[in-house]
Amino acid sequence: MSAGSRTLEDLRSLLTSCQGADSQQRVKFYDSWAETYEQDHSMMDYRAPHQAVHFLFENFSGHPDEVQVLDVACGSGLVANLMVELGFQHFLGVDGSRGMLDQAAKTGLYKELKLALLGTEPLPAQPGVFDVVMIVGALRDGFVPFSVVRELCLAAAPGGYVCMSRNGLESESGNQYKVSLEAELQLMEEEGLWSHVATKETDRYMIDMYSNCDHVQKDKYLHGTMYLYRKFLL
Ligand SMILES: C[S@@+](CC[C@H](N)C(=O)[O-])C[C@H]1O[C@@H](n2cnc3c(N)ncnc32)[C@H](O)[C@@H]1O
Fold first, then answer.
1. 221: domain range?
2. Is the minimum distance from the CB of 30 to ligand 1 under 6 angstroms?
3. Residue 226 maps to which CATH number?
4. Which residue, 14, 19, 59, 219, is most buried by CB atoms nearer than 10 A?
């Protein structure tokens, strides 16, 4: 089925088909979704990249054009596309899906794009170099394990920002992931690795494709949370 003829119901079936997948199966799913990812996400009113980039920018001090950005789970490049509008210019992207990286390459925005299944393979980024590390839409059960936040912090330069955005899909494993993630974020602060800058909730992350109703309700949205941390100047 071509993306143009897809409905929200079709997308719901597609998403339901990969519920419970592990991260290896997940990135294969994204390989097959890559070509229509942006069009389909626009239909689902996926606002997370826009919200995360503005959340970062509200709290950011520095010259965007001088900043090295690491875009983790970069997908097709939506985050970099929005950051460019705010003056950011230097991007390295990482994703576990070759198909998504091929789409990101077409933007022409990334200096480098690297393939890695995070949680299984180490984050392929030089430590202590990146002024901004972004991860949007991938800190979820079956995607990127919460423990990878330590690698995000390691990649950040002293004084660099780590901006994380995730949806608040309610499920037993989703709730457990959130508890574990937030405990890890706090533990890292107690260990003196970084300091908390801000947390912001959004009630319009994207249309809720997972509700128990018979049909997708276009006015029902998933909740999301954005976290911003700043690595200590050591
Ligand atoms: C919802 S998309 C988000 C993409 C992009 N950040 C955006 O907001 O449009 C999730 C991305 O995470 C990637 N991903 C999921 N699990 C991963 C893993 N364990 N390692 C690397 N990438 C992963 C997928 O391939 C996909 O590109």
1. 3-231
2. yes
3. 3.40.50.150
4. 14
